[in-house]
Design brief:
- The chain is mostly helical and about 180 residues long.
- It contains seven helices and no strands.
- The chain folds into two domains: about 40 residues; about 140 residues.
- It is elongated.
Amino acid sequence: MENSSSDDELKELMIKYLTNKIETGDRLDNEGESDKIVDPSSPRSVRFQKWAMLSIALALLGLGAEIAAIALSGQELTYRAIFGKGELYMVSIGMLFSAAGELLYDRTRLGPEGAWQISLSLAAFLFSLLSAVGYGFTKSGRSTLDITANLSWASALVALGLGSLMIAMASASRRSKNGKP
């Protein structure tokens, strides 16, 4: 009888110990080496990877569908045929709005970072508006395939650069709010 109660007490103590370790993030193995589990990735790299994966890769699925449609129809896969329909304009708009959402997620601040957030978001909106106009000209037939292909590529590259800058600014503003360098 006595042995059973001590086993129960030991089990209860062990459960409390393990629960405490899990709740505090302490390692369960190698007690002396490290006492906290540390995420090796930085917030900036995680934010950029998420933005790249979700906005760029998913937006490029439209181009994949366009390539498949051209290939299935028996047409020749050329630069003009693939990029001359303006899909990269839409990719640019998607990249910029997702980056602006990431940047403005924390709400703007009144200091110099707030001015940068507003300026970058305004630049993204204006560039998205220009991309939408380019897409409209393409769909209405008022733009040639060559012009559309080249301008839509330029639009996508500018959106990639501006979006990357916005993601970096979002990471910097979050770090300064948390008091971490």
